[in-house]
Design goal:
135 residues, alpha+beta, Nonspecific Lipid-transfer Protein, Chain A, five-stranded mixed β-sheet, 6 helices, 43% helix
C-alpha cells in the first residue's frame, strides 16, 4: 500500500529506492555529492520531508526537523502527485521549473540541470517516487 506523500514512512521508502538505484546513488557518489534535500508544498513555511545524502548515499530520511537544506523543492500537491503517478523527463522538469510549478527556495536548479552528472540522477530520482507511489 502506498504511503502518504512526504510522510516519515514514504521518505524512508524513497531512501531505500535511492540506495538501491545505481543510476542515482553510484552516479552521485562518483562526484562526491553531499546534500540535505528538503521537499514540501508551495506556500508553506517549512518543508515536510528531508533527505540527507553523503557521498551519493542517502543516510537519513524522514520528517523535516529544522535541518538547513542545501536544496528545498516545493510544488503544489497536485503537481507532486502528477509526477509521482506519471514520472518526469528532463524536458518536463525544465518546463515545470520555468512555469513556476516546481520552486527551489534553496538550491540552484539552473546550474544543476546544466550539469549532466547531477541532472541525470535528479530526473531519475523522480522515477523512484513513481516506483514507490504515494497517496
Amino acid at each position: 500500500m502506498a504511503e502518504q506523500l512526504f510522510s516519515e514512512a514514504w521518505m524512508n521508502q524513497l531512501k531505500d529506492a535511492w540506495n538501491s538505484e545505481p543510476e542515482v546513488k553510484d552516479a552521485l557518489a562518483a562526484i562526491g555529492f553531499n546534500s540535505v534535500i528538503a521537499c514540501g508544498f508551495k506556500g508553506e513555511d517549512k518543508p515536510i520531508g528531508v533527505f540527507v545524502v553523503e557521498n551519493g548515499v542517502c543516510v537519513r530520511a524522514g520528517s523535516y526537523n529544522g535541518e538547513d537544506p542545501d536544496w528545498d523543492m516545493r510544488a503544489d500537491r497536485a503537481d507532486w502527485m502528477k509526477w509521482v503517478e506519471k514520472g518526469v523527463s528532463m524536458m518536463s522538469l525544465g518546463s515545470a521549473f520555468a512555469m513556476g510549478k516546481l520552486k527551489f527556495p534553496k538550491g540552484d536548479f539552473g546550474a544543476m540541470i546544466k550539469d549532466p552528472r547531477m541532472a541525470g540522477p535528479f530526473v531519475k530520482s523522480f522515477s523512484l517516487m513513481q516506483r514507490i507511489g504515494a497517496v
